[in-house]
Write a structure and sequence with these properties.
This protein is of the alpha/beta class. It is 23% helix and 13% strand. The protein has helices at 15-23, 65-75, 110-113, 123-129, 213-221, 249-253, 266-270, 283-293, 301-308, 333-345; strands at 2-12, 48-58, 95-98, 101-104, 175-176, 190-198, 204-206, 209-210. Strand 3 and strand 4 (101-104) form a beta hairpin. The protein binds iron/sulfur cluster and FE2/S2 (inorganic) cluster.
């Protein structure tokens, strides 16, 4: 079976160009935005060239989108950059947007995401449903001739977004069929198109690799570790008593699922507030905080609630609940955000 993988690529400007540009500008070093959770993502933007590139490849049933990218990198285009580690939905390092939906490369099956291309049965409508304009037909794609356009596909704030294909042959990457796959959209063995873009809401470093530093520092700022004061761990005569940390099963149940979060950022890429560029600490950090707020052993619940009761903390959550849809660990993130809102409202001040 054949499939076309369309990748939204990005090449950053060389370091020295960026350094020269910033050193000559009085606006190069902007002041912090006053948020307790750190700098705005827009400050970390990297400038460079955005373009789309198509790869027509052959796939086997059951293959994942990560398998496709690994094959392309090995056999066709070693310059393609993406991040992954475990390959099994555990590390959370390979979050991207596939057909506009934030998810993990390694758990996304090709047959679940391939859509008919424009020109195939219902192709234009199917892609329009996903929010894309009609994509290229094989007639207006030049084989092995990836084109680059850095004027109208470059976004000022440096955050990743789904960039629709324009339908203009000058804007499209060419099919790369050097591995022998035929890009025949009419063939019944042609599964169609899969469009992959960097995770929305994160500054893009190169191709599908985004900068997750800000998300990690936001998680760290909420001190995601157990804070139980020493007296609980000792007996009256000062000996360590491990049994003090026992919990009842119902207490464990309140945070057990939350402790499975892998900090992949899929919920953040799905959140229109976070990915939309508003000041918001983001659902991943709030899930990390909620894991300890719901832990009966933790002594710092009120301080934790105070820490997120800020304009760019839980207060910024608009309860859209898009964050729940694709969490690879099955966490109902939107419901947790709602529960946190209630806890913050009812906390002792
Ligand atoms: S809550 Fe789910 S989607 Fe969000 S970072 Fe954790 S594992 Fe990923
Ligand atoms: S590669 Fe580790 S979660 Fe996908």
């Amino acid at each position: 079976m054949n499939v076309t993988i369309r990748v939204h690529r990005f090449t950053p400007k060389p370091e020295e160009d960026r350094a020269r540009r910033h050193s000559s500008s009085p606006f190069g070093a902007k002041a912090r935005n006053g948020s307790p959770f750190g700098s705005s993502p827009s400050r970390r933007r990297v400038r460079g060239k955005h373009w789309t590139q198509d790869y027509a490849i052959q796939v086997q049933p059951g293959q994942t989108v990560l398998d496709c990218l690994l094959g392309i990198k090995r056999d066709t285009d070693p310059t393609l950059a993406f991040r992954y580690s475990c390959g099994h939905g555990i590390c959370g390092s390979d979050a991207v947007a596939i057909n506009g939906t934030p998810t993990l490369l390694c758990t996304a099956k090709v047959e679940d995401y391939a859509k008919p291309e424009s020109g195939q049965n219902g192709g234009a409508n199917a892609m329009a449903d996903e929010g894309f304009r009609p994509t290229a037909t094989k007639e207006n794609v030049v084989a092995n001739n990836a084109s680059v356009n850095d004027s109208n596909q470059s976004y000022d704030d440096g955050r990743s977004r789904i960039i629709p294909s324009s339908g203009d042959p000058n804007n499209l990457g060419g099919f790369d069929d050097s591995n022998g796959a035929a890009a025949n959209s009419d063939s019944p063995s042609n599964l169609g198109l899969i469009e992959i873009a960097p995770l929305p809401g994160f500054p893009v470093l190169r191709d599908l690799i985004v900068d997750i530093d800000q998300m990690m520092s936001q998680i760290k700022k909420l001190e995601p570790y157990l804070k139980a004061d020493g007296k609980l761990a000792t007996t009256e005569d000062g000996k360590i008593d491990m049994f003090e940390y026992l919990q009842r099963p119902e207490e464990l149940k309140r945070y057990e699922l939350l402790s499975n979060c892998i900090s992949c950022g899929v919920c953040e890429g799905s959140c229109p507030v976070y990915a939309g560029g508003e000041a918001f600490i983001g659902p991943a950090a709030l899930i990390a905080a909620s894991r300890f707020i719901n832990d009966s052993r933790d002594d710092d619940t009120n301080a934790r609630l105070n820490a997120i009761a800020t304009a760019d903390g839980i207060t910024a959550c608009q309860s859209v609940r898009a964050c729940s849809r694709e969490c690879p660990r099955g966490i109902d993130v939107g419901e947790e955000m709602w529960q946190l809102t209630e806890r913050v409202k009812n906390r002792q001040i």
